[in-house]
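Supplementary Methods S3. Complex input for the phosphoenolpyruvate-bound model.
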Amino acid sequence: MIIVMKQGAAQNNIEAVVKRVDELGYKTHLSRGEARTIIGIIGADEHKIDSATFEVMDGVEKTMRVMQPYKVASRDFTHQDTVIDVNGVQIGGKKVVIMAGPCSVESRAMIIETAHAIKEAGGSILRGGAFKPRSSPYSFQGLGEEGLRYLAEAREQTGLPVITEVMTPEDIDLIGEYTDIFQVGARNTQNYSLLKALGKVNKPVFLKRGLSGTIQELLMSAEYILSGGNMQVMVCERGIRTYETATRNTFDVNAIPVLKELTHLPVAADPAHGTGMVKLVPAISRAAVAAGADVIMVEVHPDPARAWSDGAQSLTPARFKQLMEELRPIAAAVRREI
Ligand code: PEP
Ligand code: MN
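Predicted complex, serialized as C-alpha cells:
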C-alpha cells in the first residue's frame, strides 16, 4: 500500500503516519516529490492493512494499493527513478553508466592493466568475477579471495568502483569487504536464500535476469532484496534462452523499456552474455542505450583469445574505447550522456 500525503502536508503529519506504520509492524519508504510525499509500506502481509487507518489521519490525501505482485519494485511505489550512488558514480541518473572488465579476474597484472584501459576510455565501473558460476565443474572457477584482492588493488590505482559476483549467502561478508556492488548472476536469480541475505546488506545489488526468467520473475526476485530493506537494486537484461541457436542467448531488447515502465529501479543491459559473440556486442550495446538502458555492462579482456572464460564475447581495450565513442551520439539522441 502507498499513502499519498496532501500537497504541502506538514512534517509532523508525515512523521505521525510513519510512526503509525511502525506501530503496525511494517517498514516505510518515503518518496518526497516536488509537491507531495508518498509513503510506501513494506511488509509481508501489507495487503491486510485497513486503508481507513490512514485515511482518517491529518495530512493524508488517499491510500492506494499496488496491484502488481511486486510492490516495492513497482513504479507505483515511488515517484522518482531510483538513483544509486556508488562512490560518486550515479546509477539511474542522466548519465548512462558503463561497467566493463574481464569475465574473470585471471591475475593481478591483467586486472590492473584492464582497469587502467577502461578508466582511460571513460568507463565508470570495473567488473571482474572472482567466484565464477561455470556450467562445467571442470572449468576455471575463479581465483576466489585472491581475485578480490586484485580487484581492490585495481580500484585503488584507478578510482573505479568494482562489481563482482556473489553465489552463496556464506560469501557475502568476505566479498563485501572488497566489492562496491554485489552481482547476482543469471544462475542465481531465483536463489532466494541469497536474495534474502542481500536484502540485509548496505551495498547495491546488480541482479541479472534468469536464464529462462520472465520479466515478472526478475522483478519478484528484486522484491526479495527490496522487501528485506535494501533499496539499492538494479536489474539487468542479459539475454534469455530461446529456440534460436545463432547466438548464445537472445538479447531481449523489449525488456529494457518494459522494465523502465514497470519499475523505478535502474535498468542495465549486458550485451556480452546476451549475444555471446564479440562482433555483435557493439550493435546490441547501441540498441540498449537507444532503448533507454541506465547501465551497459560489457566484457573487456587485454587478450580475448587467451581469456580463461568468455573470450569469444570480450572486447579488446581498443575496441572498447571505440565503442565508448559510438555510444555517445546514441546517448545524446535519447537525451542522455555517457
Ligand atoms: C558474468 O557476468 O560473467 C556472468 C557469469 O553472467 P551471467 O550470470 O549473466 O551468465
Ligand atoms: Mn562472463
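The pocket of manganese (II) ion (ligand 2) is lined by residues 103, 273, 299, 309-310 (CB under 6 Å). The chain has a mean pLDDT of 97.
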